[in-house]
Design goal:
Blueprint (H helix, E strand, L loop, with lengths): L1 H32 L3 H5 L11 H11 L2 H32 L5 H10 L9 H10 L7 H4 L6 H14 L2 H9 L4 H12 L1 H17 L2 H6 L8 H6 L9 H21 L1 H9 L5
Helix pairs in contact: 1-14, 3-14, 4-8, 4-11, 11-15
Length: 274
C-alpha cells in the first residue's frame, strides 16, 4: 500500500511540474502584456503582472485593425472547420464502410500526401489561386483547406472502429441510402471524433501565417496572425504591445478548447478503454 501511495505521489508531482511548465509560457505572455516596455527591458525583468494591459491593448488598436482581423480569422477558421468535418467524415465513411475499385490504392495515395511539406505546395497552390483570380479574397483561404489528408485518415479510423458493420447492413436492409446511413447513423456515433478534428483544424487555421500572408495584400482581409506580425514592422519594438495583441488573439483558442475539451479527450481516448 505504501509503495502504491509513493508511486501515486511521484506521478502527481510529475504531472504538476509538467502542468506548470506547460502553463508558464502563457503566464509569461500575460505578464509581458500587462507591463510597460521599461519594466520588460529591465534586469531582471518583471515576473508579476503589471497595470498596463489596457494601455498596451490601446496601442495595438492604434497600429492594426485588430477586431477586423480577429473577425476574419474567426470566419475563415469556422468555415474551414465545418468543411473539413463534413467532407472528411464523408470520405472517411466511404473508405471505412464502402467497397469500390481502387479503394486501398486511393487511400494510400492520400496518406502519402501527408509526407509532403506544406512549403513545397506553396508555389503550385498560389499559381492555381492566381489563375482563379481569388487573390485578396476569403475564397483563397477557405477553399484550399476544406479537406485534408489527416482529416480523412482520422475519420476513416474512427468510423471503422466505432460503427459496427452489422448496423450498416441493418440500415441497408431497411432501405436506407448511403447518405442517410451517414447522416442518421454514422454522424451521431462519431461526435467525439468531430470535436477532436474540429479543435485541431480550428487551431491550425487560426494559427496559420504562411498561406494568408502569401495570398492576401488588402489589410481589410488580413487574418489576426498577419496583423499581429505587422506590429514588428517598427524601428523600436514595444514587446508589451506585441504580447498584448498576442494574448488577446490567443483567448478565442482557449475558449474553443475549454468548450469542447470533454469531447476532445473522449475522442483521443476512444478505444483505449473497453
Amino acid at each position: 500500500m505504501k509503495k502504491l501511495t509513493a508511486t501515486k505521489l511521484i506521478l502527481y508531482i510529475f504531472m504538476a511540474v509538467g502542468a506548470i511548465l506547460s502553463l508558464f509560457p502563457f503566464y509569461w505572455m500575460f505578464v509581458m502584456a500587462t507591463n510597460s516596455k521599461e519594466a520588460i527591458n529591465q534586469t531582471p525583468p518583471a515576473f508579476v503582472p503589471g497595470d498596463q494591459l489596457v494601455v498596451n491593448f490601446q496601442n495595438v488598436l492604434g497600429q492594426i485593425r485588430f477586431f477586423e482581423a480577429l473577425a476574419n480569422s474567426f470566419i475563415v477558421s469556422t468555415l474551414v472547420t465545418l468543411g473539413v468535418l463534413f467532407l472528411c467524415s464523408l470520405a472517411g465513411f466511404a473508405f471505412a464502410k464502402m467497397e469500390f475499385k481502387g479503394k486501398n490504392i486511393l487511400f494510400v495515395s492520400i496518406l502519402v500526401t501527408m509526407m509532403v511539406p506544406t512549403q513545397l505546395g506553396l508555389v503550385p497552390s498560389y499559381f492555381i489561386i492566381s489563375k482563379l483570380e481569388w487573390l485578396n479574397s476569403m475564397k483563397a483561404l477557405v477553399v484550399p483547406g476544406l479537406v485534408n489528408a489527416f482529416g480523412i485518415f482520422w475519420m476513416r479510423q474512427y468510423i471503422r472502429d466505432s460503427v459496427p458493420d452489422e448496423l450498416i447492413q441493418a440500415a441497408k436492409i431497411d432501405g436506407c441510402g448511403n447518405f442517410r446511413i451517414y447522416w442518421n447513423i454514422v454522424v451521431p456515433s462519431i461526435l467525439p471524433a468531430f470535436a477532436t478534428l474540429g479543435i485541431v483544424t480550428f487551431m491550425q487555421v487560426w494559427n496559420d501565417f504562411l498561406w494568408p500572408v502569401t495570398v492576401l495584400r488588402d489589410p481589410s482581409f488580413q487574418t489576426i496572425q498577419v496583423a499581429i506580425r505587422s506590429l514588428n514592422d517598427v524601428y523600436v519594438r514595444d514587446y508589451g504591445m506585441i504580447l498584448s495583441g498576442t494574448f488577446w488573439a490567443t483567448v478565442p483558442l482557449v475558449v474553443v478548447f475549454l468548450i469542447f475539451n470533454k469531447f476532445f479527450i473522449s475522442g483521443l481516448t476512444q478505444g483505449s478503454i473497453k
